[in-house]
Amino acid sequence: MPRSGQTDMAVLGALSIEPMSGYALRESIRDVLGHFWSESFGQIYPALAGLERDGFVRREGAAKRGASTFAITAAGRRRLRELLTEPVQAAPARNGLLLRLFFGRALGTEACRALIAGARADAERRLREFDALDARTAAEPQYADDAPFWHLTISAGRHHAHAVIAWADESLAALDHLDPDGR
After folding, report:
1. Does the keyword Phosphoprotein apply (predicted)?
2. pLDDT, tens digit, for every residue of 21-31?
């Protein structure tokens, strides 16, 4: 099965910031890129093995508990640049909340209201996380060259969260005009 170019892009991109173990790479992707990207251990380790085989990353000794640290090579930086300039691959939309709301008549108005209120609360939580992420980014001078670009993704996350809050408020108001059976 061929590796995903987007997985390779995420791995090479993270390693372009600093060398790290596979575990640290997964944690970094989860903690730093997590508001817009995810990769599982099942995707990262095969990608690292393939990228190493292709000469795009190299092992740098052993980190804690015998785990290898990986670093991007010059060829890996060129490959990352190639991947970054490829057209963006649109992912098919899969939104479990909207799927449930689409069939809201069967679910019932109050259950729909609860789902929307939950989405609103989650968006408010994400706004707080973006504030904390922004503060952490600003407090790390070693990443000053990357920070303006990182702020672009944080800004996108904030805008999305604000949009969800506005949509939730509008949707809750629309549900006020329906009876509990959805009519």
Report:
1. no
2. 988 999 888 88
